[in-house]
Write a structure and sequence with these properties.
By secondary structure, this protein is mainly α. It is built from 12 helices and 2 strands; from the N terminus they run βααααβαααααααα.
């Protein structure tokens, strides 16, 4: 009796189960792009902001100590109340309440850096371009809802829906423009605080001098009182030039970085809608990767060294094996 062929186990539909065949909606590939979500770099402390504050305060306090001063001499609660309270009140008068709350919510961005790798975003866009090139842009419809970035999700959704390329670019450019306006308005809140703080410091110094002038009969106390009165001016200058104005500039830098990344996303989506080859899209988006490529090259030049080859191993790229190494016997022909 002839041997019966071994049949593969059938699934619920009666079809033989395929081994090693990926599902149509398979899991993420090696690059992690099948899920449609960019690799999150996480949130890390901004060492430039933290280090800058430490260096600035160390310089101010160190210089005062070298001149024979004491830290307790500038620890005045009343001066801090006048400067900080007056500055915050002036900003409330100047700024609409909704914009003020929005600006306060952006304050953590001064101390935290959301590490979003431009290279990973480019890889994600190229994965979409490859699939759109093979199966058509409509095949990306299932992945649109899984995209983490709202801007990229909206742009790709419009492209999948067949929106005219000029209309798509016009709509997304308008969104970028409005986001830039909002970000600049939030940064101007801190700029306004930096403008009011020194003036409030002068007001605090004048108020202190008024109290000093009431006790001119005691000359020794007059000198100490004048020194204390000028602490408010120090508070105002420190608040403006070390906290508020640098915070405004840092928020502007974060804004420009975000706008640049979204411009790159828009350019990639428009290239997908045009049906360009993924290689051409990669060449087009490499301009946005220049900073990361330069940073990586600098790291390699400074820290990374080529690994040493083990003893007796041939050098990489050498024409033949080193002297004394026996040649491998040729494989026996079958």
């Amino acid at each position: 009796m002839a041997d019966q062929p071994v049949t593969k186990p059938a699934d619920a539909r009666g079809k033989p189960e395929a081994k090693g065949k990926p599902d149509a909606k398979g899991k993420a590939d090696a690059k992690g792009t099948a899920e449609g979500k960019p690799k999150a770099g996480g949130v890390r402390p901004d060492l430039a902001t933290i280090g800058g504050l430490i260096v600035a305060m160390a310089g101010i306090l160190g210089g005062m100590l070298l001149e024979g001063g004491r830290v307790t001499e500038i620890m005045q609660l009343t001066a801090a109340m006048i400067v900080l309270g007056g500055t915050f009140g002036a900003v409330m008068i100047t700024t609409p309440l909704s914009l003020l709350f929005s600006a306060v919510k952006k304050l953590p961005l001064v101390f935290l850096d959301k590490a979003v790798s431009t290279g990973e975003v480019v890889e994600e866009i190229l994965s979409y371009a490859t699939r759109a090139r093979k199966n058509g842009i409509v095949s990306l419809e299932a992945d649109v809802e899984k995209i983490a970035d709202p801007f990229l999700q909206k742009a790709l959704s419009l492209a999948v829906d067949g929106t005219d390329l000029q209309d798509l670019r016009r709509m997304m450019d308008l969104e970028l423009h409005l986001e830039e306006q909002r970000g600049e308005a939030e940064a101007k809140v801190f700029e306004a605080a930096g403008g009011y703080a020194p003036t409030l410091g002068i007001i605090g110094a004048v108020l202190g001098l008024i109290q000093v002038m009431k006790h001119l009969e005691n000359i020794d106390e007059v000198g100490k009182g004048i020194a204390v009165a000028f602490v408010a001016t120090v508070y105002g200058l420190i608040t403006a030039n070390i906290v508020m104005l640098p915070a405004a500039n840092k928020l502007k830098a974060r804004l420009q970085e975000s706008i640049r990344n979204k411009e790159m996303m828009l350019e990639g989506v428009c290239s997908i809608a045009e049906g360009l080859n993924p290689k051409l899209i990669k060449s087009k988006l490499e301009a946005y990767l220049r900073e990361e490529l330069e940073a990586e090259s600098k790291k390699k030049q400074k820290g990374e060294k080529p690994a040493k080859a083990p003893a007796g191993a041939p050098a990489k790229g050498a024409a033949g094996a080193p002297a004394g190494t026996p040649k491998a016997a040729p494989a026996a022909s079958r």
